[in-house]
Amino acid sequence: MKRLIPLVLLLCALPACAEYFPLFPKAVHPQVMPPASALQLWLANWAVDPVNGGPRHSASSVGVTADCTGLGTTPFNPSGGQSQACPFSDPRYLYSDPWQYANIGWVISGGDTVIFSNFSTESTAGRISGADSPNCPGGVPDGQFGCGIGASMEPPDVPSGTLGNPTILEGSNFASCGTTITYMNHVRQVPDSSKTAYLLAINYSGQYHALGLTGSQYVTIRCLDLFGNGGTDRNNTAYGIQAGYGSPTNGNIVLQDVAIHGFQSKGLIGSIGGPWTMTRVWVYMNGQTGLDFDPGSGQVSSGSLTASYLGIDWSGCAQSHLPFTTAIPIASQGCYDDVSGGQGDAIGTPTSPFPFSCNYCYFTLNTQDGPDFGHGIGTPLSITNSYFFGNMGGNMKSGPQSSETYINNLVVANCYRMSQPITGTPSDYNTHLSDFCRAAGVQNSAGMLAGGNTQMIFEHNTLVGYTGTVMDMVCQDSSDNTVPPINCSSYSITAKDNIVLQFTNGGTATMWDVFTPTVEDYNIAYNLTSNPWTGSHSLYTNPTLVNQPPTVLTSESQLDNFDFNILSSSPAKYAGVTIAGQTTDQAGNAWHSPPSMGGLEFAGTPTAAQPTFSPAAGAVTNPTVVTASTATSGCGSYIYFDTNPTPVTNQTTYTVTTAVTLYAYVHGCPGYADSPVSNGSWTIYTPTPPNVGISGSISISGSVTLQ
Fold first, then answer.
1. What own/partner pairs with CB < 8 Å and gap ≥ 24 does 38-43 have?
2. Of 115, 131, 174, 652, which residue is 20 to 30 A from 259 by alpha carbon distance?
3. Cα separation of 220 and 209, whole Å?
């Protein structure tokens, strides 16, 4: 128990209280749940556990001789009688008595805690929504969920807690439920899938959700994995979390170490009416949108979202059903964009004020935009230390806010990426995708508020891409309409310490559209339509990053493992200007004084990749040409390769005619330390001639003339 109010002890006689509080010995079991007034005084710990739990006690049950209160962790004993202090075995017992017709209503009260245990994988997930028997024969409940409710059985709004006692839904590993992984070539913090409790929302038609928060206040959800069962059924509108409608009253909602994935529609839908906080929330492979704060019909939010370590990936792509058969378990032909009946934004917003702050966030491979705050009006927006890759539309995208802050972000604006195969996905994942580089290929965009004084800070970002406009800015009024730029004459844009590196992939990008910075210096750009800078310390030259691909791309995969670090020879190294309040780069390393340009400080001289041989060492025929190569871009001409343990011959091939041991290393490649030496031994083998035998008779006819 979380807390037992002393008043309850004073007012409660022991025999009666034994029915409600496992603290006391039980004698009889006429009923389990205390009156509502008693529950309001008592903040309880509820338990749900499929291994140690049993059925919920019901006064209407037939033939049930053993059941649980849900208010204890003692393992269920099938011979232990009714009202045992043991967990519920099914999450749906928390809000439905399957022995009563059309019964829906939380058994918990506001301020209670529910702990989910032993739901450790998708295949062992606990059902949080969906009926067992929606058409119960004769309308008589038989202990199966859904009688009188229908297939779209779903939990009502989570009961509201208070400032001091929020309602908590959590996995049993909540105290340590985060981990660090590398995903899409970037390190990120996520909920630990080996520790979260999996809750399955499953339905076969209609609209449903895993959790409802339309009017909930002071609710904490942590260490849970909300799983929508996957699939591409376009008739279902399945949501992970249902937020508000109309004038929303929900707020003071905390999501921590929560995964939301596999829903045919959206990870979250609805408007918010107060502050929401998300920490280590991973939203991925939802068929329409990641987080959609626009429930439609102009219903606006009046709340705010503060996020850290928020990841949203593969929005617009449906997750496959179990069992997963690919490393990235997208359903066959599972991705849709805005012209094929999908949507694909990582975050969608209505035209309304919507304060948003995102630190260490990740937005990759969404079939439309990343966080689309293009309709947010007149409130602060901040995106810092964040990473973008492979989105089919824009990346950092904002409407006419009062202030916009972009610091230490790393962006790969490769909007054609999903037009080509991606390792780990089914070969046909992108069958329904076509709207690549939508909206004229704009990589990032922002609005200036007409009649206002929009303040934009754009510092220490590294922007990589190849199409349209790197930063498109327009003047918009308070109704989100584009108006002539003269209406936004009071804006302020400060751009310092940025790297802009563009590649050629069928076209060349421009830097600015409509508006340019009011303060600009200490930036570097390369391969744009023209030099975008006016600052005396800004540069228009190649920033030379580690393993930087050729300027002209021949395959989308060339940007897959993009390294944002700069070489020791980079003109961006220590060429920036110190900015007050900015002490570390995105990786947490202290800025040098003066700092380097871009989102990462110079991390020291990288080592060239050790050469590999083709064919590999072993027995070969005479002669055989062995080739040495390195994975480090631009260092192939610096390979030394011969029979010396420290090679002295600058070459990449060696012809083997006898048994020999060869050595190779990369030496003197600009910006790289020499690689370790590779070695291998080759021997010569002589193919054994075939043993041909002739049996039988040979007959020759005709004449032969010998000369």
1. 38/8, 38/12, 39/109, 40/109, 41/5, 41/7, 41/8, 42/1, 42/3, 42/4, 42/5, 42/8, 42/109, 43/1, 43/2, 43/3, 43/5, 43/109, 43/111, 43/112, 43/113, 43/165
2. 131
3. 17
Q: How many domains does the chain have?
A: 3
Q: Where are the alpha helices (DSSP H) in 503-577?
A: none
Residue that finishes a domain, picked among 606, 632, 664: 606
672-687 pLDDT, tens per residue? 999 999 999 999 998 7
Q: Dig out the tokens for 707 from the structure.
A: 């000369």
pLDDT at 343 over 50: yes
Verify that 405 and 463 share a domain, yes or no: yes
Q: Apex CA 473: angle with CA 470 and CA 477, to 5°? A: 160
Is 548 in the same domain as 642?
no
Domain membership of residue 34 (yes or no) is no
Buried b (16+ CB within 10 A) or exposed e, 375-397: bbbbbbbbbbbbbbbbbbbbbbb
What does pTM read for this prediction? 0.85
Does residue 152 have a pLDDT over 50? yes
Residue 503: per-residue pLDDT: 96
What is the percentage of the chain residues whose pLDDT exceeds 70? 90
CA angle 259, 260, 263 (to 5 degrees): 155
Three-point CA angle 112, 116, 119, nearest 5°:
165
The CA-CA-CA angle for residues 435, 342, 183, to 5°, reads 80
Whether 289 and 413 map to the same domain: the answer is no
Domain-ending residue, one of 366, 390, 406: 366
**Domain-embedded: residue 145:** no
How far is the C-alpha of 390 from the C-alpha of 340, rounded, in Å? 19
Query: Domain containing 297: what range?
Result: 157-366
Kindly state whether residues 456 and 600 are assigned to the same domain.
yes
Cα–Cα dist 46/167, whole Å: 11
Do 234 and 175 lie in one domain? The reply is: yes
In-domain check, residue 629:
yes
State the number of CA atoms in the 13 A half-sphere of 568 facing the CB: 11
The rounded Cα 603 to chain-centroid distance in angstroms is: 27
Whether residue 32 is contained in a domain is answered as no
